[in-house]
Amino acid sequence: MKSKMMFVTALLALLLTGATEKLSAQDKAEKKTSNVGLKLNLGLGSQDFTAVQNLEEGDAASLSLGYGVSQRVALWLGLSGGSYRHEDDDQLESGLASVELGVQYKLRPGKKLQPYGKAGLGAFFLNTDETQVTLSGGGVVWGIGAEYRLVRFLSIGAEIYWKDFDYTEQRVGKNGEFNKLARPLQGNSLGFMLNFTLQ
């Protein structure tokens, strides 16, 4: 009787230990692929413009700080920019910078490969030092992409984005004031970005 009790106790202890280890492994796996919490993203890519803007395609970069509010949804605040030569005068160069606030929605939370869509609002500034003219405006930003979790804290991804905005104000001179343009100038762009995300 005593040996039977010891056997049953040992068997229950073994089963309990196995169940605890399994639950612990599941918790670790969930933590491993969690989207909740702070994130830092560096993006490197290229950007092309509509013909109206008279700007050549060129390199683009972005730096963003994000926070995952759930496994599917993250909020992002980012800066992006680049320098672009003018098509009709390759000696003339303009710098484009933007501040963007967006929402990202992931389709396969918990998986290594996670496709997503995102949308947001942005403020845009196009500055040409040679002419001392700065244009500013605002609009919306759309993107679709996917990221792949390499390790627990690092993901790599690719994204195609579209920025739909107009320049509505202009400043002439470095210390001048922004004045409203008589007619908005189109500032749309299409781009591709390689993203490296720490989370």
Could you list the spans in which at least 5 consecutive residues all have pLDDT below 50? 6-12, 19-31
Strand content: over 45%
Tell me, what's the shape? Answer: elongated
Q: In the CATH hierarchy, what is the architecture of the largest domain at level 2?
A: Beta Barrel
| Rg over C-alpha atoms, rounded to the nearest angstrom | 25 Å
Topology:
Layout: H1 2-32, E1 37-49, E2 58-68, E3 73-85, E4 93-106, E5 113-128, E6 133-151, E7 154-172, E8 179-186, E9 189-198
Antiparallel strand pairs: 1-2, 1-9, 2-3, 3-4, 4-5, 5-6, 6-7, 7-8, 7-9
Would you summarize the structure shown here?
By secondary structure, the protein is an alpha+beta fold. Helices cover 16% and strands 62% of the residues.
Description:
The chain has 2 domains: 1-32; 35-198, Beta Barrel (Porin), CATH 2.40.160. It is elongated, with a radius of gyration of 25 Å. The protein has one helix spanning 2-32; strands at residues 37-49, 58-68, 73-85, 93-106, 113-128, 133-151, 154-172, 179-186, 189-198. Strands 1-2-3-4-5-6-7-9 form an 8-stranded antiparallel β-barrel. Strand 1 (37-49) and strand 2 form a beta hairpin. The chain is an alpha+beta fold and 199 residues long. The longest helix has 31 residues, at 2-32.
Question: What labels describe this entry?
Answer:
alpha+beta, 62% strand, Porin, 199 residues, elongated, 2 domains, 1 helix
